[in-house]
Design goal:
The chain has twelve helices and 16 strands. It is an alpha/beta fold and 431 residues long. It has two domains: 281 residues, 3-Layer(aba) Sandwich (Aminopeptidase); 127 residues, Alpha-Beta Plaits (2-Layer Sandwich). Strands 1-2-6-3-7-15 form a six-stranded mixed beta sheet, with helices on both faces. Strands 10-11-9-12 form a four-stranded antiparallel beta sheet, with helices on one face.
Length: 431
């Protein structure tokens, strides 16, 4: 037993040193990925997935499978098997990005430019930098696959920006080894704050009908716009709902508050505990001098842990029942999800962050959504540890290259440590 422990320790030391020496290649991979546009719409991942295949094939020992779920969505599963059966760790990352916006607002190239310790590009933080870090970890572990049991799998997908049905969800449903004993996502965030859960969501379009008349004869009309305003006021009252949060989740949010808000902004803690209601668009009427006969509003409702989609839908139904000539269309829903913040995967990644960056990472919920919610919904403990975003979704989006290189090392050591901590597997590794 002592001999095996010593062998594992020496293997880890060698792996850590190799990762330090090779970490500049993380930046090279990220540059190549960001040079290929994958903006949504349409979110075409064909070219970037093909580039990833070429990058992964440079390293022996990585098995690659391709899964096309639509003309514009090509997903990859990359697999590195260790020296014996064991646990499976999954890295998940999406290849589609936000739109470019106005290219004239960029002072750097939207398709990748490195300068002054920064790497610029569309989607570099959300999340081609995180994908590059996961690819680096796969390549490092493939070079050292005789030193660990179990396997590490990279799941690189499209369709995340449009809820993941053709990407992560398809692979979870159809590819057994896309599942694992734990999952790490490199989606936006920070190694300073490891994320264990995400709020749920309900997207609505509420439409109101009225009766048109000339504005001079307002007594003959019935304004759909005024009706939709009253609906907005009632839906805004959903913010008053009080979630029944599990004590462990509530304690983790409060404990992480001071550090987490440095990265996500003052007020994040309250948002994580609250139902939020955002009215994204509103339109109605035909002319300034006509009483509007139609109007509609789109609504984004985010659910903290402790409130279900069914409860929100019930509350929406009750709110709209007060109004005549009003209808609602549900455009998308998902439940809040969370992994116990004391799960082993958090301790492993937190220790790697301490070793590489000399930081004590906080562990907190995440405001935004990611494909990690799909893994949690499938019963797989999941963590988000990504890059600190700068100008996310705007001109001159960038990440710090030092942090990008460090994330590659963190992922490499986290995977090795998680797989080496036990050889008992809950996965069918021969699938």
């Amino acid at each position: 037993m002592l001999e095996n422990t010593r062998t594992d320790t020496l293997a880890r030391v060698r792996l850590a040193e190799a990762a330090r020496q090779q970490n500049p290649t993380v930046v090279d991979v990220a540059k190549r990925l960001v040079s290929i546009p994958t903006m949504t719409p349409p979110g075409d991942t064909n070219a970037v997935a093909n580039a990833l295949v070429e990058i992964l094939q440079e390293t022996p020992g990585i098995e690659i499978e391709q899964f096309r779920t639509a003309d514009h969505v090509l997903n990859l599963v990359a697999r590195v098997r260790g020296n014996a059966p064991g646990r499976r760790l999954v890295f998940n990352g999406h290849l589609d990005t936000f739109p470019l916006g106005d290219a004239e607002d960029w002072t750097a190239s939207p398709w990748g430019e490195e300068r002054d310790g920064r790497l610029y590009g569309v989607g570099i933080s959300d999340m081609k930098g995180g994908v590059a870090a996961a690819v680096f970890a796969l390549k490092m572990l493939a070079q050292n696959r005789q030193s660990f049991a179990g396997e590490v799998v990279g799941v690189f997908v499209g369709d995340e920006e449009t809820l993941g049905v053709l990407g992560t969800q398809f692979l979870l449903d159809n590819v057994p080894h896309a599942r694992g004993d734990a999952m790490i996502s490199g989606d936006i965030g920070s190694p300073q704050v490891l994320r264990f859960g995400e709020k749920g969501m309900v997207w609505l379009t509420v439409a109101a009908k009225g009766r048109a008349s000339h504005a001079a004869h307002v007594h003959r009309g019935d304004s759909a716009i005024e009706r939709i305003i009253r609906v907005i006021q009632d839906l805004a009252d959903l913010r008053k709902l009080s979630p029944k949060m599990p004590p462990g989740v509530l304690a983790a949010i409060d404990e992480a508050a001071e550090l987490s808000e440095k990265y996500s902004g003052h007020g994040e803690t309250d948002v994580l505990k609250s139902v939020t209601v955002t009215f994204g668009t509103i339109r109605g009427g035909r002319l300034p001098n006509l009483v509007a006969d139609r109007a509609e509003v789109t609504v984004d409702i985010r659910l903290p842990v402790g409130i279900s989609v069914a409860e929100i839908q019930h509350q929406v139904h009750n709110a709209l029942a007060k109004h005549d000539q009003v209808s609602v269309q549900i455009n998308g829903v998902f439940e809040p999800t969370w992994t116990k913040p004391d799960h082993e995967i958090f301790q492993v990644v937190r220790q790697a962050c301490k070793e590489i960056l000399d930081i004590d990472s906080a562990i907190n919920m995440r405001i935004g959504a990611s494909d990690a919610r799909l893994y949690r919904a499938a019963g797989i403990p999941s963590l988000v540890c990504g890059l600190t975003p700068h100008n996310l979704g705007a001109a001159d989006e960038f990440v710090e290259t030092d942090e990008l290189r460090s994330l590659g090392e963190i992922f490499t050591l986290s995977a090795f440590d998680f797989l080496s901590s036990s050889t008992a597997s809950s996965c069918a590794l021969q699938s």
